[in-house]
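Trying the structure run again after the queue cleared.
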Amino acid sequence: MFFKFIELLKIRLQQALPGEDAQLLMAPAGRKNMQKPDLELLNPRKSAVMIVLLPSEGGVNTLLIQRPVYDGVHSGQVAFPGGKFEETDRDLQETALRETYEEIGIETNEIQVIGKLTELYIPPSNFLVSPYIGFVEKQPEFLINTYEVQRIISVDLFSLNDETIKTERVITHSSGYKIKAPCYEIEELTIWGATAMMISELNVIVQEVREQFNA
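Done. Tokens:
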């Protein structure tokens, strides 16, 4: 089942993506009303994340990480492994692979990249994030960088589209201000902001592939 799903997903990722419309379904209220950012003027820093898919018993899982609590805009948040582009990286795909290795220990040659989602701009940190999707053929051995990662959460990919985990919360940002945002709640963790917006686009694609898979 896993490899057939991956094959169909790879084909789907080569087609037009759901894009911003899907992302905005899980965007904070202020983001939905915000004008489209002028990226040329803002000159955002480039970054990339890796959505790692792995086989589970009868299905597909993906990996999320929880950031440690620190003095920064992403303190304690749940995210996909990833980070900023370095000059030594050949491209953003290499950034995603390198950061995944540095944060949770999956060797870069273990991950087979099959495509990417739509880029997403993050105003608080002025990052433009490229979300890549890759898979591993078996359960990897993790090595957590405790400076950057508090814990790894392995989640059933299909459960991310379960309406019962979607809600809306008033969230206190690390800077102290409060923001009303749609979110996912998994294992007593709240997933909101950029990661929720990426998941929202991913969910649209995964649902299309599942329908094709079951046809």
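The domain at 2-162+193-214 is CATH 3.90.79.10 (Nucleoside Triphosphate Pyrophosphohydrolase). Worth checking whether this holds up in the mutant runs.
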